[in-house]
Amino acid sequence: xxxxxxxxxxxxxxxxxxxxxxxxxxxxxxxxxxxxxxxxxxxxxxxxxxxxxxxxxxxxxxxxxxxxxxxxxxxxxxxxxxxxxxxxxxxxxxxxxxxxxxxxxxxxxxxxxxxxxxxxxxxxxxxxxxxxxxxxxxxxxxxxxxxxxxxxxxxxxxxxxxxxxxxxxxxxxxxxxxxxxxxxxxxxxxxxxxxxxxxxxxxxxxxxxxxxxxxxxxxxxxxxxxxxxxxxxxxxxxxxxxxxxx
Length: 246
Known about the structure:
By secondary structure, the protein is mainly alpha-helical.
């Protein structure tokens, strides 16, 4: 899985793109990209990864993707696919129905997970990446967490088995420490990941157990970025000088 180790930005030359490979254009801490990366990782699909600096996208990338959105997925037969949920569906079908994670949860639960993750993102992003704080911000995150806490149907979001609903949701839940650390005024270097029975999650214990369970899955652990690393990068974004490669 060849990867451009640094995030490419305006002025950087276009990397070699192998037309016979799958290629994912993304960003290290973008949750929409992580959704796709986890799906590829789960299914064991080899792909090339090219990181894009979202604050200074290269001209050659904008020529490939006029909207400038990541993730962008190039297939080995020349298709260009955008929108994370669409890419996830495409990848999930690549090895047939027997291995499909969407078939586990069904379309209704998948869409519900998309909606819940969007609601959570709307509360976390302003805090983690723009520095919004205050009681209203804290309550908004709590309410989103309580909603997900009530929606979890079993070991996983849609029941006893892992499904595509989990992969669409998890990257957003995985940002909770980052946002909560901003609300508490914790230095990014001191951000710690939740532990079992962590008092921070006492109002959403089912969600806390779910989050820790997802982090332990081998295919997640292999590509996941730690909470502290996310917090450090988020701090540079809030400062107005993003450092995607720190």
